[in-house]
Amino acid sequence: MAFDEIRGGGGGPGAVCAGSMSVVEHVRDMASAGLHSNVRLLSGLLLTMSGNNPELFSPSQKYQLLVYHADSLFHDKEYRNAVSKYTMALQQKKALSKTSKVRPSTGNAATTPQSQCLPSEIEVKYKMAECYTMLKQDKDAIAILDGIPSRQRTPKINMMLANLYKKAGQERSSVTSYKEVLRQCPLALDAILGLLSLSVKGAEVASMTINVIQSIPNLDWLSVWIKAYAFVHTGDNTRAINTICSLEKKSLLRDNVDLLGSLADLYFRAGDNKNSILKFEQAQMLDPYLIKGMDVYGYLLAREGRLEDVENLGCRLFNISDQHAEPWVVSGCHSFYSKRYSRALYLGAKAIQLNSNSVQALLLKGAALRNMGRVQEAIIHFREAIRLAPCRLDCYEGLIECYLASNSIREAMVMANNVYKTLGANAQTLTLLATVCLEDPVTQEKAKTLLDKALTQRPDYIKAVVKKAELLSREQKYEDGIALLRNALANQSDCVLHRILGDFLVAVNEYQEAMDQYSIALSLDPNDQKSLEGMQKMEKEESPTDATQEEDVDDMEGSGEEGDLEGSDSEAAQWADQEQWFGMQ
Questions:
Q1: Which residues make Cβ contacts (< 8 Å) with residue 18, sequence separation at least 6?
Q2: SS3 assignment, position 109
Q3: Model confidence over 486-536: pLDDT tens digits?
Q4: How far apart are CA 428 and CA 62, in angstroms?
Q5: Of 11, 103, 400, 401, whose CB count within 10 A is highest?
Q6: pLDDT tens digit string along 440-473?
Q7: Residue 510, helix vs strand vs coil
């Protein structure tokens, strides 16, 4: 007796009635109700029965059972097993299509409703592609979706294809797929961002949404939103900030977390760390479960020496989700700025494993590798970060630091000049180029000119102030350096600037004020070793009778500290051992 004849209300064919259900229909209803573990158990048993008795289920019923079983495996994150079952289901469907062409209809009323509500073959292929992306087999995902005729592709299929093409560097195909998403769903904002990121003009993208903007009330902001993110993706940070601020000030969009996050990120890109931190804090207050952008926020806090805040942020993010890259990056920043580079390397690699597109994770791992002396490996990571975020200056800074660390001044100069031409002559690019020029005695004057231009544009840009101070120190123009640093500190407080001012004051014998500057620097960052060394050096000079004893003590402490650092790295060697496994995919 076939299973389609067995009904819930009776024992034989005579008991068949319109209201009764087959066992496969029960499986389908459980799947619709989200009872995945129940579906998995029952469908597994039924498939075994079908294997032992091929006549037990019709071909269409077996197809359904395979799909529902695969869906339950997908829900349990057993992606490889799910792909196997989806493949079997598609083979069954192919066989079913052939038999339906050859065999005339039997007139069996029980199978007709089932044939009308068979799981979609296109949906099965989409689920297979999802499995492949989870398994990091993007080529297989593209192949399965490419096999679906264009006219049968749903918006979510086109969106997945667009993202996969973009990741694979197939920009033209990606643009086509994103446009198809917008044709079907003109308010698909992530598809709009995808097009803008692929250098499609803002005006062209806006034209694809103009009809829906004009036909729906309270959507007039969307054209401004598109304009803002067009500026973001062309690297025009100033105009992007101004445009998003104008949106954010509108009463209907005030306190939007996504806009605040974008503003924070733009301030960070523009080198305005103070405003970036303020916007991240504002967004975090509005949404305490916010994860996006928190890796950059953690990095900024770590740079400021606020390691306790970084540690608390990392713990909070792990409580929200450990399946995102951000908490791992934040913890990695804490380790990096605590000089535990091996652990920072492991945490960065773990973040990359969770999200291979995490720019901040690549930068963290690259910086850890560089500081561990593995410069060539670091270069690979910084290059990948540049590929993913060509408008982010910090990616280029990391690569140039690697070139300078390996004495490749020519490569560093070529890269800095390219950045200057590509991103334009702003305070950041001028300073980056000057940084490279400072490394070559021949280009010292050029460095000075570049830094003066940078400081004319932005007198408070800390990196430019630091480099100009470095140049003045070489020329022993300490009074000029003191004036520069006092001017920069008039409207901001920064550990490095206070410390350098302390060094300059020592050079002109202003010891008491130098001590004050070192104290301020250490209050801002208690882990700043150079400020501590400056203060200790002054204390020795103040009490020369104890100098010999203190030198002995310092030698002992120095050797102990070095041992501790080595110990921390050897203790973390287990993290480094796993680096091969957690490395770039």
A1: none
A2: coil
A3: 998 888 888 899 999 988 998 898 888 889 898 998 888 887 888 888 888
A4: 63
A5: 400
A6: 888 989 999 999 999 999 988 889 999 999 999 9
A7: coil
CB atoms within 10 A of CB 538: 16
Query: For a pLDDT cut of 90, what percent of the chain falls above it?
Result: 65
Whether the CB-CB separation of 124 and 152 falls below 8 Å is answered with: no
Alpha carbon distances (Å) from 547 to 505, 536, 550: 22, 11, 5
The CA distances from residue 354 to 259, 277, 296, 407, 581, in Å, are: 25, 25, 17, 34, 13
The 3-state secondary structure of 186-241, one letter per residue: CCCHHHHHHHHHCCCCHHHHHHCCHHHHHHCCCCCHHHHHHHHHHHHHCCCHHHHH
Helix (H, G, I), strand (E, B) or coil at 273: helix
With bands split at pLDDT 50, 70 and 90, how would you rate the model's confidence at 107? very low
3-class DSSP state of 89: helix
d(CA 525, CA 540): 22
DSSP state of 557: H
Q: Are 446 and 416 in contact (CB under 8 A)?
A: no
Rounded Cα gap, residues 22 and 169, in angstroms: 48
Looking at this protein, which amino acid is placed at residue 236? D
Residue position matching structure tokens 């206070």: 498
CA distance 289 to 3: 49
Q: How confident is the model at residue 561 (pLDDT cuts 50, 70, 90)?
A: very low
pLDDT at 143: 96
| Band of pLDDT at residue 543, cut at 50, 70 and 90 | low
CB 423 within 8 A of CB 429: yes
496-526 CB burial, b ≥16 within 10 A, e <16: bbbbbbbbbbbeeebeeebbebbebbbebbe
Mean pLDDT of 560-565: 38
- List the structure tokens of 128: 């297979």
Q: Which residue has the tokens 């698909």?
A: 188
Q: Contact, 226 vs 206, CB < 8 A?
A: yes
Which is nearest to 393 in space by CA: 245, 261, 266?
Answer: 266
Q: Are the C-beta atoms of residues 514 and 538 closer than 8 Å to each other?
A: yes
Work out the angle between the directed axes of helices 375-388 and 359-371 (0-180°, nearest 10): 160
DSSP letter (8 states) at residue 56: S
Q: Are 437 and 446 a contacting pair, CB within 8 Å? A: yes
- At a CB cut-off of 8 Å and minimum separation 6, what does 536 contact? 550, 554
pTM given for the model: 0.80
Greatest CA separation for the chain: 111
Per-residue pLDDT band for 104 (boundaries 50, 70, 90) equals very low
Residues 285, 288, 292, 293: is their CA dihedral positive or negative? positive
| CB 61, CB 4: distance < 8 Å | yes
- Contact yes or no for 125/148 (Cβ under 8 A): yes
Answer yes or no: are the C-beta atoms of 506 and 514 closer than 8 Å: yes
Cα–Cα–Cα angle for 358, 359, 362, rounded to 5 degrees: 90
Residue with tokens 């913890």: 331
Phi and psi at residue 305, in whole multiples of 5°?
85, 10
Q: What angle do CA 542, 545, 551 make, to 5 degrees?
A: 85
Helix 237-249 / helix 257-269 crossing angle, nearest 10 deg:
160
Q: Which helix (H) or strand (E) holds 560?
A: helix 547-571
Tokens of 478: 């300490």
